[in-house]
Structure formats: structure tokens, C-alpha cells
């Protein structure tokens, strides 16, 4: 099964979110998933099996309990695939970071001075950047 087929199911994504917090017993996972998704324990077990067989989780026995843990290898494969698309959002996130920093600087300047001179300077800088984005 392809990684995106596994991740396409909201129940399996939620199980992975739970396991990202640390190793969990199958009973703990089943209780949360049954409550949140109103599915049966055998259905939860089936999702755990898919995750285990596709390599997203590792399981170990501790007495009569089964402990599940996240295995990050398939997630790294997804990350590698997503790499070609990162440019679509990273540039915008960088621009957002710049605007946030500019806003913090403007607030500091406003708190430190009573006049509006520095504020106009920051605003002019923001206008310049907007016009350069097209």
C-alpha cells in the first residue's frame, strides 16, 4: 500500500498523531479512536494492522499487551516526495515571517517614541515590498 493511501484515511492519521506523542498500548489507541470515530474495536485493530504492515508503526509485546510506536521511515519517504512542492509555500511563509518581524519592530518603535516618524518609515518599507511582489 502506498504511503498516501495509508495517510488518506482520517482514522489512520489520527492513530499516527496519537503515536507521535509516544508509545501507546493497542487498548489506549482503540479507546481514543472508538470514542472519536464511533467505530468498533475490530475496525481499530484493522487500521493498526494496516499501519503495521505498511511500516508506519512498530509493535512489541509486553506480557499480554501490544505496544505500538511510530516508525518514521515511511514519513521520511513522504517528506522526500513533498520536497518538490515546498517552494510553493516556503516563499510565502518566509514573507509572512518578514511581515511579522516588521510588525514587531513597528510596535517597539511606537512604544519607544511618541512621534510617528519611525512608523511612516516602516509603512513605506512595507509598501515597497508589496509593490515588488507584483
Shape type: elongated
Compute the average pLDDT. Answer: 84
H and E order = HHEHHEEHHH
Q: What are the segments in which pLDDT stays under 50 over at least 5 consecutive residues? A: 118-134
Strand runs, count:
3
**What value does the Rg take, in angstroms?**
24 Å
Helix content: over 70%
Strand order of the largest sheet: 1-3-2
Q: Quote the beta fraction.
A: 5-15%
Number of helices: 7
Largest sheet: 3 strands, antiparallel
Provide structural commentary:
This protein has helices spanning 3-7, 10-20, 26-37, 41-53, 73-82, 86-112, 117-133, and strands at 24-25, 57-62, 65-70. The protein is mainly α and 134 residues long. The protein has a three-stranded antiparallel sheet with strand order 1-3-2. A hairpin with a 2-residue loop joins β2 (57-62) and β3 (65-70). α3 packs across α4 and α6 (86-112) packs antiparallel against α7 (117-133). It is elongated and about 65 Å long. Mean pLDDT is 84; it is low at 118-134.
Short account of what is shown:
71% of the residues lie in helices and 10% in strands. With 134 residues, it is mainly alpha-helical. Helix 3 (26-37) packs across helix 4 and helix 6 (86-112) runs antiparallel to helix 7.
Helix/strand layout:
Blueprint: H1 3-7, H2 10-20, E1 24-25, H3 26-37, H4 41-53, E2 57-62, E3 65-70, H5 73-82, H6 86-112, H7 117-133
Antiparallel strand pairs: 1-3, 2-3
Q: What attributes characterize this protein structure?
A:
10% strand, mainly alpha, 134 residues, 3 strands, 7 helices, disordered C terminus, three-stranded antiparallel β-sheet, elongated
